[in-house]
Amino acid sequence: MNPYGYMAMPMQQAPMPKPRQGQGQYPQGPGPGTSPALPAVEESYIENIFRLNRGKMVTVYTTFENNKEWNAKIFRGRIEAAGRDHLILSEPSGRRYLIPLLYLDYATFDGEIAYEYPYNG
């Protein structure tokens, strides 16, 4: 039982299937004569743009539907980190915000936006 009053469900991991008789082992990577996979290229997703601009001041405009207290909210701070679904901002006072990108409408920056589109050629 945790402090929130509910029990965590145990995680079950599916067992790896075993190779059948005579099949040998499963492949463990590129075989002989094949080239290794190219490294992943940063794609133009909003979280990657926030990552490229880590340390810059940003104003983030959000909308929280069905919220009677504050439907729209504006956050201002320095970008500390960005994940696939969230943004972390810090104010000069030390307060930090974890903002789910689900609620993001748009963001404005004080200066230039670092944006390295991977397919500029």
From TrEMBL:
Keywords: Capsid protein, Virion. Residues 11-28 have a biased composition (Low complexity). Pfam families: Spore_GerQ. Residues 11-38 are annotated as: Disordered. This is Spore coat protein GerQ. It comes from Domibacillus mangrovi. The lineage of its organism: Bacteria, Bacillati, Bacillota, Bacilli, Bacillales.
